[in-house]
Amino acid sequence: PRPVPEGNLKEPAIKRIQEGLRFAFGSQLIISAIALDLFAVFFGGAVALLPVFAKDILHVGPEGAGILRAGMSIGAITMALFLAHKPLGKSAGKIMLACVAGFGLCIIGFGLSTNFYLSFVILVVAGMFDEVSVFIRAALIQFQTPDRMKGRVSSVNSIFITSSNELGAFESGITAGLMGTVPAVVFGGLMTLAVVGFTWWKAPKLKNYDFE
Hints:
By secondary structure, the protein is mostly helical. The protein is 79% helix and 0% strand. The chain has a single domain (19-207), classed as Growth Hormone, Chain: A. The chain contains 9 helices and no strands.
């Protein structure tokens, strides 16, 4: 027989969203994991400036821009396949923070690189770091959320992460206009490192989290 869903399915959608927000903000683990990724993507949104890098800095044209654009996806797919065969266990929180820091360093390296092949490799590595962070955050949310709240909290997570991608592109464009393309990307990477440092300091539950 089909399982009977918990909770009141006739509740208004806005109330269910409010409950998801309330639960997420009430858990240091969940909100710190979401916020870490949100601000890392917000400040590390170098992908939005790839066409500028391809044309004006790396001088590779639209074909090169397409290859660069695929770099992070290639890294993410590679890491996803690796994690499928070798799941993470202990020190998941520290690994997550280290990978977000690695992502920030990759963004800085990409901003400073003037070699197309090096830039591509950096983006592949950045995608690998980002995939580990995404994997840990998704698993953490599933493990730390009761069954009846899983859909609501996952929706809250999706809202924040999706909006951070678009806001990150906006931030990259604004800072590039104010500072220049390279300084804007380096600034974003430095801010990502600052977010990691702040999270390490203020979110001990996330720092010390593991799956075992």
